[in-house]
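EI: anyone free to look at a 203-residue chain?
SC: sure, send it
EI:
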Amino acid sequence: MVKLALAPGVFLWHAYFSPQAQKTLLDDVLARLEAAPLYRPLMPKTAKPFSVEESNFGRLGWVSDTAGYRYEPLHPVTGKAWPAIPPALLTLWDDIAQLPPPDCCLLNLYRGAAKMGLHQDRDEKDVEAPVVGVSLGDDGLFRIGGAARGGKTQSVKLASGDVILFGGPARLAYHGIDRIVPGSSRLVPGGGRLSLTLRRVAA
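SC: here you go
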């Protein structure tokens, strides 16, 4: 497996998951979403719905509403605990992060014109551990910069099965998804791109 260094602390593995492994992981994810259905979070200041749909797996889930950004142990719609993180993702974490298990797997579904503006993942107490992202489905144009807003950024296409990690000097880098390429994959039922990001929340 080839590990590409995109910037200090930013690494990419193309096709980390084979087509069959992608299908197996997707089936596991979809089964868990039966218990933790996708929903649209709200922006804290405007109460405007996100363009992406979200859910979580793990001990804690990242949520956003008019009360702010935070991690919660219960699904905000069902009131139930989040399902466990899929074993394949825990194996991935062990392989490339080599740290205690993640507390959260945030799942974003991008369809159509859905995107994610540049932001920092800074709601975690543990910012020493990296963030690990898995792409399933349509290609996505991922953008990442530095720890200061407005700095130089670079973009990279993430295809189904790709894995990206940012940590160390890039742990608080601004990053986002500019757009997806609808129809570039047939993996996800109904089309779109699933992003699964693993992170440690508690220090």
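EI: Residues 19-33 form the longest helix (15 residues).
SC: 👍
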